[in-house]
Amino acid sequence: MPFIPRQVKPLARVPITCKVPEEVANLLKQYADFLDSSQEHIVSETLRVAFRRDKEFQAWLATMRPRHSNDLSALAAQRPNESNQPATKTQP
Known about the structure:
Elements (H helix, E strand, L loop, with lengths): L21 H14 L3 H15 L1 H10 L7 H6 L15
Helix pairs in contact: 1-2
């Protein structure tokens, strides 16, 4: 067993661009501040929750598996707390 644990490698990140209403952008910034997290983290985790909870999408995704070599459902099924970042901000 190593003296120092191995560093967890971050997942590969792909940049995306989208436009949202100003109100949504402001709420995203405030929510990121509230959780003491990056906006990128908030968007990623919110999408994961949506993908995981949408049963119709999960059923559709299961029909797509034979067409794709990558199993994207595993990523969609991950719970937010499985990442190395804290899920909530603690209040003093």
